[in-house]
From TrEMBL:
InterPro entries: GH (IPR017853), Glyco_hydro_2_cat (IPR006103). This is Endo-beta-mannanase. GO terms for biological process: carbohydrate metabolic process. It holds the Pfam family Glyco_hydro_2_C. One of its GO terms (molecular function) is hydrolase activity, hydrolyzing O-glycosyl compounds. It comes from Cyclobacterium amurskyense. It comes from the Bacteria. Residues 123-236 form the Glycoside hydrolase family 2 catalytic domain.
Length: 434
């Protein structure tokens, strides 16, 4: 009888208990080994995707994805879930991953949104959950990006950090298989690391601040964020970080100067082998911000800027080479290198680029004159090209008539080759009524 009971118990264990233990082990494995995760080994952070180390060589933007892949990149970053399914599918087809943005703050949550209103915050968090459910199993998904520089709008930075962490906690509960990142625009995080314990990766939007980042964060481990981070946007110094004219128009750097900064920033970022997980170059597309060329890696026609050619060389670890001229400045009537250019209203002038090429005949030219975009953020209004002022706007030397109305303007020159590459330069000027 005892043997029969023991035999029955053994049978019961095999049939009922053992499958439960196997199921528990399987569930634990899923939890322990998500599709994408940050692992720490002896204090060093490393991003893993499908069990393999993954370092981000990414582009911020949703255009020209074929070129991200072809030029040696492996990931893109978005700022919202607009057309997310289409973007994720295209990225997967090209072998790219996506940091998928969840837009909070302006404009998704409205400039008048109050983060102290708990009921409204709860409602917004619930509105985000269906997007997590919809895309959490997509094979191209790398991580979730909660907001972008949200503290620029909405009030108290720490209250916003607390809200971001609530969203991160919701995401982790809904999708435990992908990390959560949020992007900020400040040098150090301070108390934020205590307010955002559920955020896995901090994204720094770094332009001119990159050169200060490592100096300001010598005690990064102890007094800063202390965990994994990326540069969620990196690029040339912004229009808020350069010299202005007497009337407040920022001077855009020459292409050569931009490439020098990109080289410097790339070396600085990649010197950190402890917490740095990669970066997203800004902006992979065409974006009008003060000018059409400040951050844009591509022209409106889709041509490659020299900066995107340089980023390609960084991603692939190759030497950079360009067949385009270096444009040092634009001259008005043989007045090269003069700052604070004042021109007479309704008067004829000639403009030509000062370059290191003696023969420009094999290259294509395009000129533009636009009113200065001093308040584009507030107005969301991008002024048109005043083509009626120009004669032969595709010649190497431009003949043009200045506007009749006094005020700030900017002249642009674009020089292209036959291989789909271009370089450019622009110069602000002020029209004065005589």
């Amino acid at each position: 009888m005892i043997r029969i009971i023991q035999s029955n118990l053994t049978y019961f264990y095999i049939i009922c208990i053992l499958p439960m233990l196997i199921s528990c082990k399987y569930d634990n494995d899923l939890t322990i080994s998500p599709a994408v995760e940050v692992r720490y080994t002896e204090g060093k952070a490393q991003l893993y995707r499908n069990g393999n180390p993954y370092f981000i060589k990414g582009a911020s933007g949703i255009d020209n994805l074929e070129k991200v892949s072809a030029y040696g990149g492996n990931s893109i970053r978005t700022w919202s879930v607009h057309n997310a399914g289409e973007i994720l599918d295209k990225a997967e087809a090209l072998g790219l991953t996506v940091t998928l943005g969840l837009e909070i703050g302006r404009p998704y949550w409205g400039e008048d949104f109050k983060y102290w209103n708990i009921l409204e915050v709860n409602k917004k968090i619930e509105e985000l959950k269906p997007f997590i459910e919809k895309y959490k199993n997509h094979p191209a998904l790398l991580m979730w990006g909660v907001g972008n520089e949200v503290s620029l709008k909405g009030g108290s930075r720490y209250l916003i950090y607390y809200t971001i962490n609530r969203i991160a906690k919701m995401i982790k509960k809904t999708d435990p298989n992908h990390p959560v990142m949020t992007a900020i625009n400040v040098k150090t995080i301070g108390r934020g690391k205590y307010l955002m314990p559920d955020v896995d990766i901090l994204g720094y939007n770094g332009f001119g601040l990159i050169k200060h980042f490592f100096e300001d964060n010598k005690n990064y481990k102890n007094k800063g964020w202390g965990r994994a981070y990326i540069f969620s946007e990196w690029g040339v110094p912004g229009h808020w970080e350069v010299k202005d004219t007497a009337w407040g128009a920022p001077y855009e750097l020459s292409t050569k100067q931009k490439i020098n900064f990109l080289q410097q920033y790339w070396e600085l970022m990649n010197q950190d082998t402890t917490s740095f997980l990669g970066s997203y170059a800004f902006y992979w597309g065409n974006k009008f911000e003060i000018t059409d060329t400040w951050f844009s890696q591509f022209s409106t026609e889709g041509e490659n800027s020299e900066t995107v050619q340089y980023i390609q060389s960084l991603w692939k670890g190759e030497a950079f080479h360009s067949n385009l001229p270096e444009i040092f400045n634009i001259s008005f009537n043989d007045r090269p290198g003069q700052s604070n250019q004042y021109l007479a209203a309704d008067s004829l002038y000639f403009a030509f680029p000062i370059t290191d090429f003696d023969d420009l005949s094999a290259l294509k030219f395009k000129w533009e004159i636009r009113p200065e975009e001093a308040k584009f953020y507030e107005l969301d209004d991008y002024q048109h090209n005043m083509s009626y002022l120009m004669e032969a706007d595709s010649a190497s030397t431009l003949k043009f008539r200045t506007p009749k109305n006094e005020g700030p303007y900017r002249i642009y020159v674009y020089i292209s080759d036959d291989s789909g590459n271009y370089t450019s330069h622009n110069l602000p000027f002020y029209v004065v009524n005589q």
